Amino acid sequence: MMRARVAYAGAIHEATPMGPVGALRLADGRVIAEDQAIWLPPFEVGTIIALGLNYADHAKEMAFKAQEEPLVFLKGPGALLGHRGYTRRPAEAMFMHYECELAVIIGRSAQRVSRSRAMQHVAGYCIANDYAVRDYLENWYRPNLRAKNRDGATVLGPWFVDAADVRNPGDLGLRTFVNGALAQQGNTRDLLFDVPFLIEYLSAFMTLLAGDVILTGTPQGVRNVMPGDEVVCEIDGLGRQVNWIAADEVYGR
Amino acid sequence: MLPSTGLSSIAIDVSPFRLTGTVYGALLNQRSALAVLGDSVNRLPYKAPPRWPVLYLKPRNTLAGPGDPVVIPQDCAELEVAACLGAVIGRTACRVRAADALDFIAGYLIVNDVSVPHENYYRPAVREKARDGFCPMGPRVTPREEIPDPGCIDSRTFIDGELVQSASTRDLVRPLEQLLAEITDFMTLLAGDVLCLGAAAPAPRVRCAQTVTIEMAGLGRLTNRFIAQ
User: Fold this and answer.
1) Does B131 reach chain A within 8 Å, measured CB to CB?
2) What is the structure's pLDDT at A66?
3) Region A43-251: CATH code
4) Number of alpha carbons in the 13 Å side-chain half-sphere of residue B182
5) Domain B5-228 belongs to what topology?
6) What does pTM read for this prediction?
């Protein structure tokens, strides 16, 4: 099952897809168009755990050798944004890029879980686009929050997709389109550290709780985006996420 | 962010009357913490001293209250404890000016930012800082009105009753006002979030069966016992 959380007509609703033309059915029976809803991250988000350099091709593109241990960082709730939202691009920045990623949502608490049992703790999946502003990277707790934890720069959704509906999370194609042109392409089979490994690794030192989310990293193909650009991230079976880049002026800067 | 249960024992009798469970910290924000690194800040892998606040999160699985035992993981002989002043945000703080910063503070509490000792700050220290129970806070949120100047709070850390560290927020690299201005330029803090202002170096180390008490002038005492897994 695919479901979204949307704001519509004064309340927050659970919504499911309806037909082929992007309509939504709210839990109360109303049917609305996609652009009538304000899309929120599709579940109540707990701890946000992100992976850096988790595809060999992207690590190479960034001139890093592949990690021997996962490169893990955390993000705060202010970074979150829903489908069809706007992400600010600081005017001074030279290089801000999207990162299409498979997001894994924890269902059942996981504490010292082995790889073989790890997938029992997954509730579902969604698309994540985790923007970075490379100009702000510093070599202290890198990637630092100023580069990687900016307001509205981590887009989740549109859908939360039940784990039961994703046959193999280890073989999902990812694609990013900028203004309609294919810019980034990869497949989760090329993850250096796959989903069961990450759950085993993380749960060995921290208890993962329902609603925690793991952003598994991005493949090669990151490019600079500019205000007005439309960035679309797709993952097989998880849908199509739209985001737009907004200029500083919109925010009175 | 979903609330944590570890926070329920921390009294907060001032608006917003609840903690969100989102806790940020500033690393190397005490002059002594930067000083011990010496000239290494200019060498690999850092290549330059930090230009902006070095921030980290203490996720909800780390949150604990006064009196909660802290479990020393099996793979660690000892842990570092870091006495930090925690500023509790009182209302949505976005693009705050340093001159107005204290208007956005609800109050203060003591935070013991516990870590597995680590000397390299190049990569985020999630495995070192995000273990279960590694962020005891409390004993209560002291309202801002009772703390006229957060820039001169003395703290003392005791292990089994012995004084092991004295520090003061006079020695912060960035005082609270500047820190809040720089952080909220790119990330919004919400009412009930906690911002830890940084700890002095060297960090005291604690072993199994020891008790750590952090005392801050006007804020009370935070005591936690460290136990084996």
Assistant:
1) yes
2) 65
3) 3.90.850.10
4) 18
5) Fumarylacetoacetate hydrolase; domain 2 (3.90.850)
6) 0.97
